[in-house]
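not sure who needs this but someone in the group chat was asking about histidine kinase from Phytohabitans houttuyneae so here u go. i didnt clean anything up, its just raw.
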Amino acid sequence: MVGAVTPEYRALLPGALLAEPYPETRGPVRRTARDWVVDVFLFLFAVAVAVGMAALSFEEGVQEGRTLIDFIVGVLCCVGLWWRRRWPVAICLIVTVAGIWSATSIGAALVAFFTVAVHRRFVVALAVAVVGVATGFLFPLLRPEWGSSSFWVDFAWATIITALVLAWGLVVRARRQLVHSLRDRAHRAESEQQLRVAQARQAERTRIAREMHDVLAHRISLLSLHAGALEFRPDAPPAEVARAAGVIRASAHEALQELREVIGVLREDPAEDAPDRPQPTLADLPGLVDESRLAGMRVRLDRRVDDLGAVPVAVGRNAYRIVQEGLTNARKHAYGSTVDVIVTGAAGDGLSVEVRNPWPVGVPAGPEIPGTGTGIVGLTERATLAGGRLEHGRTPSGDFRLWAWLPWPA
């Protein structure tokens, strides 16, 4: 069933539940200060057991030759514990096999078996435990002088001690796996949080860049319109030329200011305390229409909403951008035509925005205004994200119609 666990769910489970081993030690081991303390303590424990068993053998009257050989074997097993982190299974098997005859290697065998239970899978630890139990079965047969009670009592104690060491090692292993899993989940959660923050920041930058696209397209189209008028009317009265030049200067200044803002937004590391630029609402729509009229456009505003300021900010901003893009497109493609802007709606019914102008057939050729052709695409995306819809195209009456409906909660 482990193979059926999804990666997302697997990341939330402790390693022990997935039957996966704790990261095993391979190759040379670099001990930490804590590892040195633990290793020294366990080495001294194994040596103390060896010395104690050697002293007990003298009291039991075991031959001095056997006792000396037994003690030498026990000390060698204790020394071998320094390599138990690199080769835990091999060291444990060697010490366990030595324990078939050597009583002084019992401490080293317990330490080595505990290391296997902590750092190796349960199946490996269980197999080594079986070898240890077999050792406990053979030792009384080869060294009967150590038998203080019946054979089966000694064998039972050896089995119990082996089982206790195995259980202790499994508990330590499970705890380490849990700590490792929690630490990994914490790192993953921190990385995911940083990713979410970066995505949110990028989404906000994209949104502001889209806003700036709409604004700059509007400003630059005004600049092009006024510059084209001066180009085609070099004999215009000085007052009209001065007024057009003033509008060009003001529009250029505002375009540069807005371009500076969008560059600041799209910087790699924007200032955290940088204030957001004021966003327009539907209450600013009359000013937008007046600005287009000053540029020479014929715009008729049909406002069927009593209070434009009552429209929610987000809805009003989207409606404003739609009208702004509609006026920009009319300046580009229907120069000199009359543009009708109709705003209707109420709370609970939604807000409808319509920009209509005659299809550009036989209209005077105005100054060419470059464009990317993606304005309508951006408006469609904007309306869709707001929960509304947008339609555009030629009507049966021969007009070009840009219409959008946006939800206006009650």
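also The first strand starts at residue 298 and ends at 303. if thats useful
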